[in-house]
Amino acid sequence: MEAHIVVIDNDQDMRELFAFCLNNAGWEVFAYDYAHIGLTALIQLHPDLIILDFNKEDGGTGWEFLQLLKMEDTTANIPMLIVTTASPLSAEIQGYLLARHIHIINKPFDIDVFLPLVQKTLNLASPLGSTFSSDRSLPILLVEDTKALRETLETVLRLEGYQVLTAENGLLALEALYTTECCLILLDISMPIMDGLEFLSTYSQQLKSHAPVIVLSGQQDILTQDLPFFVVDVLSKPFEVRQLLGLVQKFAQPV
To answer: Per the CB 3.0–4.6 Å rule, which of 157, 215, 240, 253 could disulfide with 234?
Structure first.
């Protein structure tokens, strides 16, 4: 079933642009200015995602509406994207918003970056990863070239009750995916023969559905918005095992 997206923007041209792009991507869009949408009406729409515009001239209307949404139980957990022409937000405010999966997009933005972020936000918002495989008991594919780390993560995941397949590089991972369906891929970036980025590029071209991917990387400059929509998170090395398990449980379940 297609996702329902509500866009709230006082600029009619932007509302029309959002509606055109998002409809073409396969989502149902409802677009309003702030004067013509209220909390009650928004609740009745049951949106899967809300896109809010903040601008310099709205007198704080966008912020007030965001606070209203977060104080109401029925809307507090709806994922949101903020598009803005306002001055850069403080690091504290940005951190607060990102911790609640509220991403900030500065205008003007590249639509080829924006649409994958919308898809990724919808994917993360699904508690069962329903935009991916519905069978969360399928194996997890762990792609990691460092033997010690690969064996350690495999052991931990198996102790947690998950089925696990392993591959030492991206090429072997692709070969495994030709014959096996997985519910989740844990992907290292720096690997010989075929690295993680090369794997993602090739994997994104396959016609069948994609498994969600969590990137495990020691490279600090990797940004999720630069990766395919099925990359649901980036976990920087070194990471704590509990961090990894917290992400894994969103898309996989023990057997």
So the answer is: 215
| DSSP string covering 144-172 | -S-HHHHHHHHHHHHHTT--EEEESSHHH
In angstroms, how far is CA 119 from the centroid of its own chain? 7
Number of domains in the chain: 2
Answer whether 53's CB lies under 8 Å from 14's CB: yes
Q: Which of 209, 248, 250 is nearest to 229 (CA)?
A: 209
Q: What is the pLDDT of residues 213-242, one digit of tens each?
A: 999 987 766 655 567 878 888 888 888 898
What's 100's domain CATH number?
3.40.50.2300
Q: Which residue has the tokens 């297609």?
A: 2
Q: What is the model's pLDDT at position 128?
A: 40
Same domain, 46 and 80: yes
User: What is the distance between the alpha carbons of residues 77 and 65, in angstroms, rounded to a whole number?
Assistant: 14
| DSSP one-letter string for 181-229 | --SEEEEESS-SSS-HHHHHHHHTT-SSPPPPEEEEES-TT--GGGS-T
Would you call 1 helix, strand, or coil by DSSP? coil
64's tokens: 């007030």
Take residue 125 and report the two structure tokens written for it: 């918002």
Tell me how far CA of residue 168 lies from CA of 6, 87, 209, 217, 234, in angstroms: 43, 45, 23, 15, 19
Confidence of residue 99 (pLDDT cuts 50, 70, 90): low
Specify whether 76 is located in the same domain as 149. no
User: In terms of C-beta density within 10 A (0-12 exposed, 13-18 middle, 19 or more buried), how is residue 208 classed?
Assistant: exposed
65: left (phi over 0), alpha (psi -120 to 50) or beta: alpha
